[in-house]
Amino acid sequence: MFRFIVCSFILLVVVGCSSQLPEQANHDSATDKTTLANTQEHGNKQQVLEQKLMAFHREWRGIPYRYGGMSKRGVDCSGFVSLAYQQILGKKLPRTTAKQVYLGQSIIKSQLKTGDLVFFKTGWSTRHVGIYLSNNRFLHASTSQGVMISLLDNSYWQQKYWQSRHL
Questions:
Q1: How do residues 14-34 score in pLDDT, each as one tens digit?
Q2: pLDDT tens-digit map of 88-142
Q3: Of 21, 76, 88, 107, which is the most exposed, with the fewest CB atoms less than 10 Å away?
Q4: Is residue 87 part of a domain?
Q5: What is the DSSP code string of 104-163?
Q6: Residue 32 within a domain
Q7: Can you spell out the DSSP letters for 39-77?
Q8: Do 65 and 73 form a contact (C-beta atoms < 8 A)?
Q9: Residue 106 domain flag
Q10: Has residue 57 got a pLDDT over 90?
Q11: Judging by DSSP bridges, how do beta strands 117-121 and 105-107 pair with one another?
Q12: What's the DSSP call for residue 25?
């Protein structure tokens, strides 16, 4: 009788030590595959958006800065961002940096993704806006060089960085 109890106990322990039931293992595996697919899809969307932004940059590169401008004769930073969002994403944004800064949700610099807006305080009451690409780069209409790509960690922009927004 004692042998029967010991053997039953050992059998229960061995059977009970399984970390997952087969159904759970399959469900978790399916969940992992879905998560991976969603991550890859998100990554692909980011790549596609970056390609579109780079094409937009090639079309506008070097267009001079003109305060209040919204054409290839001259464009300012918020006008450029507004045009890019309208043409690439079909989203209508407010025309001014003062209004764009309240869109979407505030994010920290380390959370930036392609298409997010980056804002700078370039003077006592002057603000500047650009569109984040990837790898610490952003697309914008510079007062000195027109439409261009700059680095966030450039000493000038790093010093002037204010906030980022995800739309």
A1: 333 333 333 344 444 444 544
A2: 999 999 999 999 999 999 999 999 999 999 999 999 999 999 999 999 999 999 9
A3: 21
A4: yes
A5: SEEE-GGG--TT-EEEEE-SSS-EEEEEE-STTEEEEEETTTEEEEEETTSHHHHHHEEE
A6: no
A7: HHHHHHHHHHHHHHHHHHHHHHTTPPB-TT-EETTEE-H
A8: no
A9: yes
A10: yes
A11: unpaired
A12: H
Domains of the chain: total: 1
Q: What is residue 17's DSSP assignment?
A: T
The answer to whether 53 and 88 are in contact (CB under 8 A) is yes
Domain limits for position 60: 38-166
Dist CA 82 CA 134 (whole Å): 19
The one-letter amino acid code at 79 reads: G
**Domain annotation covers residue 4:** no
The CATH number linked to 121 is: 3.90.1720.10
Confidence of residue 158 (pLDDT cuts 50, 70, 90): very high
The residues that bridge with 105 in the sheet, in sequence order, are 166
Question: Choosing from 7, 17, 57, 77, which is the catalytic residue?
Answer: 77
The percentage of the chain sitting over the pLDDT mark of 90, rounded to a whole number, equals 72
Marked catalytic residue, from 27, 42, 128, 166? 128
167 by DSSP, 3-state: which? coil
Catalytic residue at 128? yes
Mean pLDDT of 82-89: 97
Residue 61 has pLDDT above 80, yes or no: yes
As given in the structure block, the two tokens for residue 16 are 């009970």
